[in-house]
Amino acid sequence: MGTGQAGHQEFDVVHEAIVGAFGLPPGKLFVSVKGDPTLRETAANRPRQESRIDRQAAQVLETCELLLRKTGCYGIYIGFNSSEVRTESVFNPFHYEIHDAEAIIRPGYVERHFVRVPYQKKMKIIRQLRRAVQTGPLREYLPEHWRTLMDQQREEWQPLAKKDIREIMQSFNRLRSIEGYYLRNAAVSLSQGIVRASFNCDGTYIVNSAYFPQFVEENTP
């Protein structure tokens, strides 16, 4: 993957959070994290093995897109190597679920495990839940500067446009098909507005979700 573009910051030795309480570092569209040097140096010598997701990638990604667009799911992790799909829902925000990639595309599975919710109502609930926590009884424990920053971030928060989810999910297919350095796992968080992509070289990129399609375009053949 390319480096050196505007909005980029690389973390070799981290003194601050890569993604902190207030999101990506100010002014950064994405950051990258180097992984295990052993994995990095041997990536080209490790042939890619087709996973169960690869055999049905289009259907799996389409289902994951549906979960983000039409159900209470606000966060999703896709493990292309492990065929694991992990989801977070507004109905139980302090808990996550783990699903098998082949299971979620079976008839009736989504209806059994997920609840349909209009997208804008889900975004409204995320905003309301955040406000309830940050202005509730726990507020007295926050340092004053944290209160100010959280209040500002909460007021400025803009949810990812529903129409952009499809392009993000389809970008995963493109990154997965890169020769040599391909996508190993990926995650989307609607509440944080970030996309996380990790590759077989053990490097990871954390990208502003609105910028992600452009990021993929700039970093793929």
What does this structure look like?
The protein is an alpha+beta fold. The protein has one domain (8-219). It is built from nine helices and eight strands. Strands 1-2-8-7-6-3-4-5 form an eight-stranded mixed beta sheet. Strand 7 (194-199) and strand 8 (204-208) form a beta hairpin. It is globular, with a radius of gyration of 18 Å. The N and C termini lie close together (10 Å). Mean pLDDT is 87; it is low at 3-13.
Q: What descriptors fit this protein?
A:
single chain, 221 residues, alpha+beta, 8-stranded mixed β-sheet, 9 helices, 8 strands, 20% strand, disordered N terminus
Quick rundown:
The protein is of the alpha+beta class. It is built from 9 helices and 8 strands.
Question: Which segments are poorly predicted (pLDDT under 50) over 5 or more consecutive residues?
Answer: 3-13
What is the overall shape? Answer: globular
Mean pLDDT across the residues is: 87
The helix/strand series, from N terminus to C terminus, equals EEHHHEEEHHHHHEEEH
Can you summarize the main beta sheet?
8 strands, mixed
Q: If you compute it from the alpha carbons, what radius of gyration comes out, rounded to the nearest whole angstrom?
A: 18 Å
Q: List the total number of helices.
A: 9
Gap from first CA to last CA: 10 Å
The percent range for strand residues is 15-25%
Number of domains: 1
